[in-house]
Design brief:
Blueprint (H helix, E strand, L loop, with lengths): L6 E6 L4 E6 L2 H6 L3 H14 L7 E6 L13 E7 L2 E7 L3 H7 L4 E5 L6 E6 L2 E6 L8 H12 L4 E4 L2 H4 L8 E2 L3 E2 L4 H8 L1 E7 L9 H17 L1 H6 L4 H13 L21 E6 L9 E7 L4 E4 L4 H4 L1 H6 L4 H14 L3 H16 L16 H13 L3 H5 L3 H8 L2 H11 L16 H15 L4 H4 L4 H12 L8 H13 L8
Length: about 500
């Protein structure tokens, strides 16, 4: 079937089996998207009686791995504390998986010893990962790609997941964090990571028409003010765009740039911009920070999540926010959930409830204390071991439920684009736009670049890929179905 490989990879860690499984055409026709397919595969596994714990589903979309603008997303499905969860990541991992001959991967069971999954052009095998167990994300990626396939796409965990931090995340291609809790499941399965390299191709129904659509999508993105600001070399410009987008999500993605404070002095210098597979925006930055004592280069902080530490911890210093995010990336932790845990620790310390842990100098709004607490959580030392269990556990143990609720509420809405389903209903025009974004993301298109797609262009592109496509009037219905899947998952921070 055009646009797909029609193949799933099934991995059982318990009995160490790796096998291919056909992906039925009927399933692809009825659930032709990364979220819808992941949810359907999860449901089928439940119907077959497979245990929900120690299971993950990685699924690409019909556009993942193609040359259109931003065609790089893949979905992640897993069992969270409160039920079925799903999210998505960018980078190059999804494209490499598709080009390696697989549309998705289902991993089940628990390995006796740490392992990683190596996939290269259709061939897949489990390998020993004892040498990288207890290593951070960067060291793990360097070791595994050197042993498996240089330049490969990766999805790996750090020490936080190994020690079962409640909000541990897997990190895609060293840069892109999964939803909190996904890494926790990988750690419980003793799956250190997945490394994939593909050199294949994806067939389409009408190559010439698809090329024309791909060029049109790139042209529209290059002229879109929202995408241009996301790709700015100034970190602060990108951060301001996303901050105002979160405050005014119903004003429209393209109009968020109108609220930028262009007069702000730059707080850091962008060394290089990072872009996902088949994307020209480059919204991720590798920045150089200069303070009174040293010059530091931080690897691609995410502007849209760095400021969650300000909302949860009261820290306004950009340097500290980026340091905290960098630690989350290295240890493999969801920054939003981690910021809630740190904020709660700070509040409890101010109230004198943490004296027994022997931590001094912890006060709400203290940047040095915030960075130190993030490190303690990643290592699960001292009060960090309690915080790593999540804000809910801390709140119950220390009778601080109301404070925990306030902190989590301050961070909600942190991923306005990725969580389009969670937005409350607005005007008819806004609903149409959110439906289009949800449908485009289900197809595997990055929501940051999906703002440049019109319903007509998206349907025309899909028709060039499959030979058929939904009518433009059907986008609203299909997008609403995707939003319903996301609304039914665990809401809020994994705690």
């Amino acid at each position: 079937m055009y646009g797909w490989n029609n193949v799933l990879l099934r991995v059982n860690l318990t009995d160490k089996t790796v096998r291919k499984q056909a992906l039925p055409h009927e399933l692809l026709r009825n659930y032709a998207g990364q979220f819808t397919l992941a949810a359907r595969c999860w449901t089928r596994l439940n119907e077959a009686g497979a245990p929900e714990e120690n299971r993950i589903v990685i699924m690409t979309g019909p556009m993942t791995g193609m040359m259109g603008e931003g065609t790089n997303r893949y979905a992640l499905a897993y069992q969270g504390r409160n039920g079925f969860c799903t999210g998505s990541c960018g980078g190059r991992f999804g494209a490499e998986l598709k080009l390696a001959g697989y549309d998705g991967v289902i991993v089940e069971g628990r390995a006796e010893a740490p392992v990683y999954l190596c996939i290269r052009d259709g061939a897949a095998q489990l390998r020993d990962a004892s040498a990288v167990w207890d290593q951070n994300v960067d060291d793990t990626v360097c070791t595994l790609t050197a042993a498996c396939a240089p330049g490969a796409g990766t999805l790996c965990i750090g020490q936080a997941a190994e020690q079962q931090c409640a909000f541990a995340a897997a990190v895609g291609d060293r840069l892109y964090l999964s939803p909190g809790g996904f890494g926790t499941v990988m750690g419980a399965m003793r799956l250190k990571g997945v490394v994939v390299r593909g050199s294949g191709a994806i067939s389409v129904a009408n190559p010439e028409e698809y090329l024309a659509c791909a060029l049109e999508s790139r042209r529209r993105v290059s002229e879109d003010p929202f995408a241009v600001c996301l790709g700015s070399n100034e970190f602060q410009v990108t951060a301001d765009v996303l901050r105002n987008l979160q405050k005014r999500p119903y004003a429209g993605y393209r109009h968020a740039v109108r609220q930028i404070d262009w007069r702000k002095p730059a707080a850091c210098t962008t060394v290089v911009r990072r872009a996902c597979y088949s994307c020209t925006v480059g919204c991720r930055k590798c920045v150089r920070m200069t303070d009174d004592t040293q010059v530091r280069t931080l690897e691609t902080p995410a502007p849209e999540v760095a400021e969650v530490f300000e909302r949860a911890c009261g820290v306004t210093t950009l340097e500290a926010q980026l340091d905290a995010f960098e630690l989350c990336r290295q240890y493999g932790m969801d920054p939003a959930a981690c910021s809630c845990a740190v904020g709660l620790v700070m509040r409890l310390a101010d109230a004198g409830l943490l004296a027994s842990y022997g931590e001094e100098g912890i006060t709400f709004g203290n940047p040095n204390a915030m960075v130190r607490l993030v490190s303690l959580i990643g290592q699960q030392r001292g009060v960090g071991a309690l915080a790593a269990r999540g804000v809910r556990v801390m709140a119950e143990q220390l009778n601080a439920a109301e404070t925990a609720t306030q902190i989590c509420a301050a961070v909600e809405g942190r991923c306005g684009i990725a969580s389009v389903a969670a937005l409350r209903k607005g005007s008819k025009e806004e609903e149409q736009q959110l439906a289009l974004l949800a449908f485009a993301q289900d197809c595997g298109i990055c929501p940051y670049t999906a703002v440049a797609y019109t319903e007509y262009l998206l349907c025309r592109t899909l028709r060039a890929v499959f030979g058929q496509a939904p009518e433009t009037r059907e986008i609203g219905r299909l997008g609403a179905a995707v939003r319903q899947i996301l609304e039914n998952q665990t809401k809020g921070v994994e705690s």
